[in-house]
Amino acid sequence: MTRKRVHLAAHFPGVNNTTVWTDPRAGSQIDFASFAHLARTAERGGFDFFFLAEGLRLRELKGRIHDLDVVGRPESLTVLSALAAVTDRLGLAGTVNATFNEPYELARRLATLDHLSQGRAAWNVVTTSDAFTGENFRRGGFLDRADRYRRAAEFVRLSRELWDSWQPDAVVADPETGRFVREGGIGDVAHHGEHFSIEGRFTVPRSPQGHPVIIQAGDSDEGREFAASTADVIFSRHGTPADGRAFYSDVKRRLARYGRRPRELKIMPAATFALGDTEEEAAENAAAIRRQQVGPQTAIAFLEQVWGRDMSAYDPDGPFPDVEPDLSEDLSQGRVPFGDRAAVAAKWRALAQEKDLTIRELVIEVTGRQTFVGTPQSVARQIDEHVQAGAADGFILVPHLIPGGLDEFVERVVPVLRERGAVRTGYTGTTLREHLFDDESESEPS
Of the candidates 407, 398, 420, which has an alpha carbon nearest to the alpha carbon of residue 42? Predict the structure, then answer.
């Protein structure tokens, strides 16, 4: 029986209401100092990588930009390239859309980041069929779910062809001059597929880790299959032990059909946390954070997304309204849909009635819960037990404050995890691929 090492990553949030921008301790979401602070904190904690999301269009509710969306977030790969200069070992992961980019151009940008960082680059591959977002692009949002995953799979395959086209250089003697020269390296790329047709040569030499680490976040059946065939890391949303174990087992089982072993894919759910000196204090802190994350405006906005009606006349801290949803209307654009809105509305109404919840209390109940709550010792234990039980390989932590929201975790929880032998005490490799898949990723229990 081997003991699994816990992998940790840090997410710089801002595309939803997880981040509390109204807190006096909150900083800028565009000042480079904010990105540098969080990245350096993660590196001090021995985290595998720093993760940036992407927002290609500001989300709207009832035709207006939602006030809690971040306006002015910089482009991810540009920020990560700058962070390569102020970090040494931390992986640098950026979300870049495979629907609205081209393989040759993006492969060059990612290979460049991998060179600048000496092998620490990662690409979180996402797709979209959202015509609202597509209005910002020539192509538009014309791809349905199946087509966008086929395009993404071909996009990644072609990117790897480009990255792999540079073979290791060989130093040989020129037969005419006798001087030693470099020979080989650049190779031709000829790709003719359903979505892309390229004939040419890649301009960037092979990067330190061969090619960037691939991250994927889809949860549909197509997304899970794409991850099993292609990804190195899954950014999962299954944070509870039961859901985590089911997802973990399902995806790991799919790897065999692609000739892959379970340890070749790391599953890392998003996770939040609230700490305290006692369990009671931690619970109080968690409740306070949830109320900050779900203010009155946000509570009404969530309700309107499901109900399809203007609910602004209702008191968010008053009784849950006795009004039927309008399923013909969708007041929100650019947000992840709730799926079967009729089923969601019925579930929310039943929960509100069962627990006698106000609108805001209900939205807190269904959207604002922290993953790990407790003292540093109990949070470290929860994280470690979650991984050892086969529910995850680690977690991508999403702090509620920027830039200092990760500080307390690194200062108080990481030392306990190290005492348990759950996380690394120092980096043993230089590339992100080594962080994730080195020989010390699993060790015998002490």
Answer: 407
DSSP 8-state code for residue 210: B
* Short-list 440, 374, 369, 379, CA closest to 7: 440
3-state helix, strand, coil in the chain (%, to 5): 40, 20, 45
Pairing between strand 188-192 and 233-236?
unpaired
pTM for the structure as a whole: 0.88
What gap in Å lies between CA 269 and CA 277, rounded to an integer?
26
pLDDT digits (tens, 9 = 90+) for 170-183: 445 566 776 655 55
CA dihedral sign of residues 14, 21, 12, 371: negative
Residues paired with residue 319 on neighbouring β-strands, in sequence order: 358
Give the span between the Cα atoms of 415 and 28, in whole angstroms. 29
Average pLDDT taken over every residue of the chain: 87
Dihedral sign computed on CA atoms, order 115, 116, 119, 121: negative
What's the CATH fold of domain 3-134+209-278+370-443?
A: TIM Barrel (3.20.20)
CB burial class (10 A; 0-12, 13-18, 19+) of residue 244? Answer: buried
The closest of 45, 44, 35, 19 to 92, measured between CA atoms, is 35
**What is the full DSSP assignment across 6-64?**
PEEEEEE--SSTTS-TTSTT---SS-HHHHHHHHHHHHHTT-SEEEE---SS--EETTE
CA distance 60 to 203: 40
**What distance in Å separates the CA atoms of residue 282 and residue 289, rounded to the nearest whole number?**
10
Segment among 129-143, 303-317, 338-352, 429-443 with least mean pLDDT? 129-143
DSSP state of 220: S
- Note the Cα 182 to chain centre separation in Å: 40
In the chain, where are the structural domains located?
3-134+209-278+370-443, 295-367
Amino acid at 72: G
Widest CA span in the chain: 89
Radius of gyration in angstroms for the set of CA atoms belonging to the chain, rounded to a whole number: 23
Site of tokens 């890391």: 233
